[in-house]
Design brief:
mainly alpha; 83 residues; Ribbon-helix-helix protein, copG family; Ribbon_hlx_hlx; DUF6290; 4 helices
Length: 83
Amino acid sequence: MSISIRLDKSLEESLRQRLQSEGISLSNFIREAVCEKLSRYENRPTPYELGEHVFGRYSSGRDDLSINRKALLREKLNAKHRR
């Protein structure tokens, strides 16, 4: 596969000088950079893994809140208005 990218002049010059001084071809550098970036994504934790330690931490102790939310809210509002 062939890829074309556009770099501003100063970035291109800096990159070419650096690669030339280290004896690395531009193609090899780009391939290694893409592989390195992809490996970072593979090792990244999922959103679930990031938040797992807080899930359920502040539990109300009730397991019916998602099912009876409307009735519970209605009860709370009625109790507030009766005061």
